[in-house]
Specification:
Elements: H1 6-14, H2 21-38, H3 42-47, E1 53-56, H4 63-74, E2 78-82, H5 98-135, H6 144-150, H7 163-178, E3 185-192, E4 199-202, E5 205-208, H8 209-214, E6 220-227, H9 228-243, H10 246-260, E7 262-266, H11 284-296, E8 299-302, E9 305-308, E10 313-318, H12 330-333, E11 338-341, H13 347-355, H14 361-370, E12 375-378, H15 380-396, H16 403-418, E13 427-430, H17 432-439
Parallel strand pairs: 1-10, 1-11, 2-7, 7-10, 12-13
Antiparallel strand pairs: 3-6, 4-5, 8-9
Length: 453
Amino acid sequence: MSNLSPIEIVEQLDKYIIGQDEAKRAMAIALRNRYRRSKLDKEMQAEITPKNIIMVGPTGVGKTEIARRLATLVDAPFIKVEATKFTEVGYVGRDVESMVRDLLEASIRLVKSKKMETVILQAQLTAQERLVDILMPGKKHEKPAQFLLSGTVKQEPFQPEEESDIKKRQEIATLLNEGKLDDIIIEIEVDDTPMLGMEIAGIGGDLSFNDMFGAIFPKKRKKRKVKVSEAKRILEQEEADKLIDMDEVTKEAIDRAEQDGIIFLDEIDKIAGKNAGSGPDVSREGVQRDILPIVEGSIVMTKYGPIKTDYMLFVAAGAFHVSKVSDIIPELQGRFPIRVNLKSLTKADLRSILTKPQNAIVKQYTALMQSDGLNLEFSEEALDDIAEQAMLANETSENIGARRLQTVMENLLSDVAFMTGSDVPLAIVIDRDYVQSHFDVKQPKKDLQKFIL
């Protein structure tokens, strides 16, 4: 668990998200409280549960990005789910417990990735030995050197017996490290895992046929002909998997999911509101009642074992244009004690989003064009006009927040992006004249029909 202070957390979020200080502050406090809880004795820890957060704000203002960046900052298991894909028990759709299983899967991938980093060097050495065994010419070959460099070499484990054999292995290992053998085709054995994608729902979660039959029948091996470069990757992965204790990974992943997991419930406003009695609205309140025990704290059965949701952090978000937060059933409202309002983006916010974040849109497009040898430059006046164009489009049509900048930039740079090869100049300056001339025809017109009674 990270010991960053709330101020430091907000500073990290500021590198990627413009504005929304209230939401950043609330998330930073929630994260710090987790660290504070981890320093207490076990008895007190059991009494303290996370204070779940509900974010209210229009689309494209940074709700998801705040939660995602926060999880990345502390390596916490994180998933985003849309509340609209769940339906109450008795209706067709995924059950709400699947979000907890998905979180555990994310936690296992996270823990396994960290374990992989600790064993990768040993795995690389072992994989290299296996490759040398494959590439090492056998005694039955009359012209070992020519055979090695001319075609397919089959896997024949080789034990060095003479000094010349040891020297030959060292030479092959050197060529492997230098990448000079990457294009040679060799034959290796890999696990044969037939993809039976059908899943069945049952006690313990969604089980695939692979999971069921994999435990009954031993794994089969099959031969594949691949390049040395691809074989190196496959064998390194295989050797790393052998060095990792999956029981230990599963145990740690369950603990991290229970204590550090973050579930982001998006579009929660779409399941708010009273039942209309027919149509798709019939299950809105039912979905809320199904989500309630998960947020309250319950035990969910998975194929890895039971997992508790008592100490997971739930972050709900929605625009609430049609419905209100008060339309959510009171029991579920009570499980989200912290409510933060995210503001619509202003022209100044859009202008900052273009250039200030580490992943700013202008930086992305500049890097893309630079890969083709084109230096793209934007004048300050052009950036002002781009932000104004995005603001105008949001006001005259649907307000999609910062996502509108992607649309404006694509339209603005479509001609530049289309140029390739010899047509690409050394540099292009996007100035005010370029922006205004480009959007003269594409200037959005205000739709007055919605104002006519």
